[in-house]
Amino acid sequence: MSSLVQEKVQQAIQILNEKNLDCWLTFVRETPAGGDPVLPLIYGHDLTWQSALIITNRGDTFAIVGNYDAETARLTGAYENVIPYQHSLRRSLLHTLERVYPAKIAVNYSKNDVQADGLSHGLYQLLLDYFTATPWEQRLVSAESIIGALRGRKIPAEVARVRSAVETTRKIFDRTFEHIHPGITEAQIHQYMVNLMEEFEVEAAWELQNCPIVNIGPESPVGHVGPTMIQLQRGQLVHIDFGVRQDVSRRARGLVVTRDFAAWQLWTSVCYLSNSRPRGETPSAFSRLPSYFRLLSSDF
């Protein structure tokens, strides 16, 4: 059975053909210190020495990696050609590009999408040094369209992870709604949800200090800020901005973040109004909101 990484690499080949691009080059180093955001999808592990992952529209796949990373690259099953080196990546990289001879080389920079902007400026400069006296510098283009499609088109394994994360998020919200009462503080709501994340063995979707963001009433600070000691009074609104990462490991990060859907914002806002449901036409819409996450899950 193929892995998520193997399936995403094959998907990338299809996308390259759709985008009329010959070759996609992901160039990284010392990824534990801050790797390319796309690496979990097309490799699933850290890389230490300078490394080049090359995927072509003809279906050729290359992993040019340091000698001590070579076996892990082979074990991914995603790269047909694993090329280890001991001293310098340059020679193997140029030889591989000569073999592929692409008209365009997509690399990971973008003005618009942080997820497609994983190539650091220093590595870009290094790549240009390697390309001295070659035609490759003039053939570099952005991989933004490739990465956008790769991240946006969920394969079944990714859909299953998203559904699982949505369901966990719903359960945490349900437990939180049952727990909230007049007199509780923003900080207490935050801590309660942090405890539930530990119970469900999931991680916060962003910085734990601000996940969830909890706002009670008109005096609560607006924005990406931690909870305060403001207490909930009857008749006040409660807003919760929250999401989880589920099935996450250092070696294979699950792209499963759910946060702040508008319907759940409305639900958290109205459910503590004077300890009763809204008047007028609101109850009809209100009664449909609890099924929002279940409906969302079934639509993936």
Describe, in short, the structure shown.
By secondary structure, the chain is an alpha/beta fold. The chain is 40% helix and 14% strand.
Could you characterize what this model shows?
- By secondary structure, this protein is an alpha/beta fold.
- It has two domains: 4-152, Creatinase/prolidase N-terminal domain (Creatine Amidinohydrolase, Chain A, domain 1, 3-Layer(aba) Sandwich), CATH 3.40.350; 156-299, Creatine Amidinohydrolase (Alpha-Beta Complex).
- It contains eleven helices and ten strands.
- The strands form three sheets. A six-stranded mixed β-sheet has the order 4-3-2-1-5-6, with helices on both faces. Strands 7-10 form a two-stranded antiparallel sheet.
- The longest helix has 24 residues, at 156-179.
- It is elongated and about 70 Å long.
